[in-house]
Specification:
Layout: E1 2-4, E2 12-13, H1 18-25, H2 38-51, E3 56-60, E4 63-67, H3 78-86
Antiparallel strand pairs: 1-2, 1-3, 3-4
Helix pairs in contact: 1-2
Amino acid sequence: MFKGIGTMQGVTVSDEDALAYALEQCGVRHITGDKDNLMFDALMGAIKDWFFSGNFCHYEDDDPEICQHEPEEDGPDHDEEYERYLDIDPWED
């Protein structure tokens, strides 16, 4: 289940309805083509992941108190990793 946060607070979308909701919110009303194609499945999954990555938290049905997007307490510091990435000199020997 996806629960909205920030500007989407109060919106709840079930896992089963997530793709249809994301497509509708993006203005997609009708899909044609080979829906059994692996690329189609990958694209639909990417659209769903992208849409719900911002103002939504994904909760598992068995533990509705834990948001799947919450950072790990002992996880990596993403700002520190990004700073290290910026310090890479591709021309350095």
